[in-house]
Amino acid sequence: MNYLSDKAKSVIPYTPGEQPQNKKYIKLNTNENPYPPSPQVLKQIKEYDVKELRLYPDPENTALRVALAEREGVRPEQIFCSNGSDEVLAFCFQAFFNPEGLPVLFPDVTYSFYTVYADIFGIPYQTVPLDGQLRINHFDYCRANGGAIIANPNAPTGIYLSLEKLLTVIKYNLEKSLVILDEAYIEFGGQSGAPLIGDYPNLLIVRTLSKSHSLAGLRVGYAIGDEGLIAGLKNIKNSFNSYLLDRLACAGAVAAIRDESYHRETMLKITRTREYTVDRLSDLGFMIPDSKANFIFVSHPEVKAGELFAYLKEQGILVRYFDKPRIDNYLRISIGTDQEMDILVKQLERYLQKR
User: What stretch of H or E contains 298?
Assistant: First the structure.
C-alpha cells in the first residue's frame, strides 16, 4: 500500500548541487565561499559554554537580530531569522501568498525553489520570460499580481537589476502586493534594497550568511521588512517550530557579523578573482553576462555546455549544468580561490585546443 499523500507523490523537489563524499573535487558548483569564515567564528564556538546546549535556544534570536539590525541600519523588530534563506522563502509563501489569489510573478530563469514552493503550497504563479540577453524587464512586474519575487542578482545568471528599476516595481505594487527581493548574492557587487524598508511596507528583503560570510554549514538566513511583515513570518514560524536556530549557529553568526573588516577583505578577494576569471575566459571565446554574484554564467559558441560539464568533472572540477530550456548551453561556475580558477581556465583552454 502506498502511504504517500498526493502532494508527496506529485511534487518535483529542488535539486541541490552535487556534494561528493567519496572523492575530492575542486567544488565550483554550489556557490560556496572559497574562504573560511572569520576566525572570530571559530573562537566563539570553541569558547561556548557547552552546558548551555541542554537548554532550548532563544526563540526570538535576540542577540542575532540586534547584530543584524545594527549592520543593516534597521530596528531589531524589522529582522526575522531562520535556517538559511530557503526556509525564510518557504515561510514567505505561506505568510503572504494566497492559494485563491492572483498569481505570484517571478522570472522563468531564476532560483528554482520558487516553483517548488509554489507547487507544494498550492500558490498560483506565472513565470515572466527574461529577455534575449537573460535580463529582467522590470516593467513586466508592474501589472496585476499576487506578489512578486526577484532574485537580485539573479541566479543562475548573476545579472544585477539596478535599485532604480526595482523601485519602479515596488512603487507600482505599493498598495497592491508584496515585492520580495532575494538578495542572497547582493554583497558581491550590488546595492541592497534594505534602506528602502522604512518607506515601503510592501518590500521584504531576504538574505543569507551562507555565501557572504562563509557560513553555509551553519544555515543562517534572515529577512528585513516592515514589522507587520515580520509578525506574519513569526506567526508561520511558530506554527512549525519556535526554535529554528540553534545556539551555536546564532553565536557563530553574531561573531561573523561583528567582524566586518574580515568580511570586506573576503568580498574584495572574490570580486577580484571573478573579474580576472571573466577576462581570461572571454579570451578563450566564452560569452559571459556581467555578473555581480560569486559565480559566473558562461557559454561557448563552439562547444556544448553539457560536453564541457562532463569533461571538467572527469578532471576533478565540479560546476553546475542546468539541462533546461533557454539555459541548456550555459555552465554556472562558482568563484573559487585564484589557484582553483587557474586550474579551471587551464583545463578549459586545453580542451578547446584539442578540438
Answer: strand 295-298
Number of domains composing the chain: 2
What are the two backbone dihedrals, phi and then psi, of residue 106, each rounded to the nearest 5 degrees? Answer: -155, 160
In this prediction, residues 293-302 reach a mean pLDDT of: 97
In a domain, 291, yes or no: yes
The closest alpha carbon to 208, from 294, 146, 96, belongs to 294
Which of 243, 259, 275 is where one domain is finished?
Answer: 259
**Cα separations (Å) of 130 from 84, 133, 134, 164, 283?**
27, 7, 5, 18, 27
pLDDT in the model for residue 20? 74
Can you give the residue range of the structural domain that contains 24? Answer: 6-36+261-354
14 closest CA partner among 98, 125, 89: 89
Spatial distance between the Cα atoms of 346 and 308, rounded to a whole number of angstroms: 13
Q: What is the mean pLDDT of the chain?
A: 95
- Shared domain for 169 and 48, answered yes or no, is yes
